[in-house]
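User: We ran a pulldown and think these components assemble together. Before we commit to crystallization trials, I'd like a predicted model of the whole complex to look at. Sequences follow.
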Amino acid sequence: MKFQKRRANTKQEIPTTSMPDIVFMLLMFFMVVTTLREVDVLVQFKLPEAQAIEKIENKRLVSYIWVGKDKRIQIDDSIVKLDEIENIMYAKRQALPNIIVSLRIDQGTDMGMVTDIQQALRKAYCLRVNYSATLKI
Amino acid sequence: MLKKKQIREAEIPTASQADLAFLLLLFFLVSTVIDVDTGLGLTLPEYVPPEEQVMVKVDPERMAAVLVNEQGDVLIDGEIVSLFQIKNMIKPRIMSKVDLPLSKKLIVSLKTDRKTVYNQYIAALDQIKLAFFEARDEVSQSRFGRKFKDLTTEQQEVIKDAVPIIISLAEPEQVK
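Assistant: Here's a predicted model for the assembly, 313 residues in total across the polymer chains.
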């Protein structure tokens, strides 16, 4: 008597025809989520650390001001002078009334500088600021 | 002789479609920056020109004046403390004013020298914010039995009313 091995007749293959669809779905997700970096940061800075930090919910409202180790100030793509900030930020606020200004300031900067920037922001009516900081562990 | 036209099947090879999609996917995976901006939020006071500024007397009981000088020494209401004590100094004062009306809540005023290092200022601001956040957590724990961030929006509003974050940046003095 012959013993036959019992084997299922079905093929053991994973159907791959729908794989491109799945990959495209993932692709779409990442395409939507991606915001390509619009500006080159020209200044060098190291952010301070803090514990009580919050997330900025709405990225579209955010506008950045960088202050580097060498005390240069950058807004958007260019290095600006201190007394130019007011006009630039005022124009920005006109375009976007509830703007949030994210201050990415190097941790070794003098407060005099920061105060001057804040005064400029107050004159430009950009009152919502966020001191960018990384989480202290 | 007439040749019958051959109908050839026109097909685009789809075998490599997945590979192409993967390539694109990899590109977007690599270029995506999902990290959100984190930092200490603050609302600046409106700008008032110096000649229009009015002095408003505030009950000293309401005020906690935090001064940070250029060496990083901290003074709270005339008392020298270390930077990391600020939270513990301020929190009890916030907690003692939870049940008082809004006009009696604690105002924390933060003032620095022009030569103070930014890092120190952020550390001080961080301590003050931590004090407020911990006070909020404690109040919500006692009222709703949950932490502040787990509450519903309405409940959060209640707590925000009980413990509003009032941080005042002192008007910079004219440099002589």
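Residues 49-135 of chain A form a domain with the Nucleotidyltransferase; domain 5 fold (CATH 3.30.420.270). That may be worth checking against your pulldown data before setting up trials.

User: Thanks, that helps.
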